[in-house]
Design goal:
The protein has 153 residues and is mostly helical. The protein has helices at 3-10, 20-23, 32-48, 84-97, 102-115, 124-131, 135-152. Helix 3 packs across helix 4 (84-97) and helix 6 packs across helix 7 (135-152). 16% of the residues are buried.
Length: 153
Amino acid sequence: MTLNASLDSMAGGHRLETNLYEQFAILRDMDMPQLAELFFEAAETNRAMPPYKRKQKLTSWPEYSHDWLSYADDETHVTIRPSAAAVDRWEQAIYISRELPELDRRLVWLVSISAAYRQRGPNWRRCGRLLHMDARTVKRRYKDALVNLYYRI
């Protein structure tokens, strides 16, 4: 089942034909750079979400230091899960992206995922390699997709 089919079935089997501004208050004061940031944040939230399938639990105990100073060592990993507000914005970004054609939607999410947890922004060259295009073409098509989405909503 595709994402569109699952969202349509949740909506009662038909697509909702209402204005997105009425449904999501987050869109009312949003301009295009903020729209791009919404998708970048949604991609980071997507990577921070727990996996859909839990790993197999082992029956052995992991090795750990018995010293009380060992809790701040380099091997201690703390996982930070997204907040409820971040998950809400992630769902809104998914719903908003349904307004795009499929190729533009894939492009927007590919660029957003490539920019997740990256200080320098999207990796245009990598996106271009995945789409078999030049990096400048990918960037131009991404901007066009955001403009189309901005004026569509």
